[in-house]
């Protein structure tokens, strides 16, 4: 019997939807589309999720993990901290920026339990000193690199963790059934794989490139009359 790669269990643990990062409190703009009737069922949610992963998450979180790996391979921690600050500057919706900071810190804190001997401790020092803002993709890159996960595997795990979290939120909010949620997640396999392939072609100039419609929906969320989620 061939043993699983040593990085598999740490990645699975940090990708678990039950990880106490607070991600379950955020819809990242999905709730704005629920409010205006764009998302009403399984099919419309799946269409939004495809756009979110392929047109926003790939260009933010996915690209950040890849560029973080490249800096870490060079031993350039300052480059990782710069990436964190750049992500904050490029995230225009205030709620999403705040969500990234909160989830990023919690991911780093939990990550030090999963990989105590990693640069996550240094990241927390930078956060406490106010020199970094916090971002889940940066924290995930630091942990995944520490356990020697291949960069494409790290990106794939992080993107699919977001898919899982958002699908669980959609099951509650639309609502759709648990089986429908599983169909959506299965349909996202190729979307995530294509997003990873896209990430590997990007340059730093592509970081944060997001269709305005997604960002506008994320900005609209804070002014909704009723909300289930924080973003």
UniProtKB/TrEMBL annotation:
Entry GO terms, CC: cytoplasm
Function of the molecule: Required for maturation of urease via the functional incorporation of the urease nickel metallocenter.
Main location as per UniProt: cytoplasm
HAMAP family registered for this protein in UniProt: UreF
Keywords (A to Z) from UniProt: Chaperone, Cytoplasm, Nickel insertion
Subcellular location: Cytoplasm
Family: Belongs to the UreF family.
GO molecular function terms noted in the UniProt entry: nickel cation binding
Gene3D superfamilies tied to this protein: Urease accessory protein UreF
Pfam families named in the record: UreF (PF01730)
Protein name, entry field: Urease accessory protein UreF
Listed InterPro entries: UreF (IPR002639), UreF_sf (IPR038277)
Assembly with partners or alone: UreD, UreF and UreG form a complex that acts as a GTP-hydrolysis-dependent molecular chaperone, activating the urease apoprotein by helping to assemble the nickel containing metallocenter of UreC. The UreE protein probably delivers the nickel.
Keyword Chaperone carried by entry: yes
UniProt source species: Tsukamurella pseudospumae
